[in-house]
Design a protein that fits this description.
about 90 residues, two-stranded antiparallel sheet, 6 helices, about 5% strand, elongated
Amino acid sequence: MRTSAASAGFSCRRPSCSGSERHSAATPRTISCTRFEGKGSFRDLLLADTRVAAALGADELDRLLDPSANTGLAGPFVDRVVREARKLAS
């Protein structure tokens, strides 16, 4: 059974929130705050949000959350730093 994150009225204690802020609607902030408090997996909290569930199925969300599919931008950043360092050295 799914519970809507909005209906749960999570109380957030994350430093970026006001300490005991009650979030009235599911937002990326409420989902991350709830996860920060250890109250569920990020995936399950996302799927509990009706907006996410309406846009993405569980399989698609799993694909998007798979860290092995994320190649990142480390390579281009390193290349740029090396290029700039070489300019400075010459």
